[in-house]
Amino acid sequence: MSDRFAENLLTWYRREKRDLPWRKTDDPYRIWVSEIMLQQTRVDTVIPYWHRFLAAFPTVHHLANADRQQVLKLWEGLGYYSRGRNLHDAARTVADKYDGRLPDTYEKISALKGIGPYSAAAILSIAFNKPYAVVDGNVIRVITRYFGIEEDIRSASVRNRVREHAEELIPNNEPGDFNQAVMELGATVCTPKNPQCSSCPVSAGCIANQTSRTDVIPYKSKAKKIPHHKIGVGLIVNQSGKLLIALRPEDAMLGGLWEFPGGKNDTGESLEETVIRELREELGVEVRVSEKYMQLKHAYSHFKITLHAYWCTIISGNPQPKSSEKLKWVSLDELEQHPFPKANKILVEGLQNMQPEDLKRFLIK
């Protein structure tokens, strides 16, 4: 069965695979970058980032020698920024320890920052032709339907069963193409809703197809309700017409990115009171809050926020980086040079439509 599955799937893949740029290279470094960027991110989103990133850092050594801010700026908007930081750190390790050549053993490649079981299997199979099976959401959907696995895919035991099946099916020849083919099948044919079973190269052996259960397999229990937070941030302008931004700590969520200072709204607290308290705690200053500049919503992987940005005037104290790596005063033009999280980036884009003289009424008194 495994031979027929692989043969039929690979025949289909050679005919139907999408024309993706990382499929036109055998450079392990470029394949590695693509696999990291593709984690929890749509292919169409990744393509322009991949091209820009490799234009700036064409080799491991270029990336290893790059400034962290430059790396994060090129990652800006792609999300899950720890991927970019880990890729940068791992490139430094590969440059120092392996002379710029990505190691080709599971033990060594898994020891690099940001490379877990999925990434290790994908890189080793695609770049080095080694038979390690990958398991992602697309693979889970294909395997559970093909073998009729009805249990909850959130369960570790079910994921282990999927991995075992994938390892049984993967051929020793063309393992990289096989892994990409299974993922391709899940992305384009064996889709979550309305799968195109009539176009599937392995539908004849698929239990979910044979028993008309593609609508209930795979089964995934409901996730916990995603929390929502209200965030208040302050926009502070100095006598030179520059805005104050703060660098998030490297080990924090969104570490290495810049933001406008502020934080979560506490129960029973107005948003203006949130901004005053947060700027006192983060900067050691007392501020007067004036008008609201912008309100926007943004969703992260495990929570959602509504961000409220207010113009503020410092009435006492000098800003100090009490909870950030450092502070910086920047002009409207200089904002674009700094990497920001998506929510703050939306603020930046709005601010860049202003004229420097428009900021004068918000100057520190």
TrEMBL record:
Its EC number is 3.2.2.31. The keyword Metal-binding applies. Residues 227-353 form the Nudix hydrolase domain. Mg(2+) binds at G262, E282. It holds the Pfam family HhH-GPD. The keyword Amino-acid biosynthesis does not apply. This is Adenine DNA glycosylase. It comes from Rhodohalobacter mucosus.
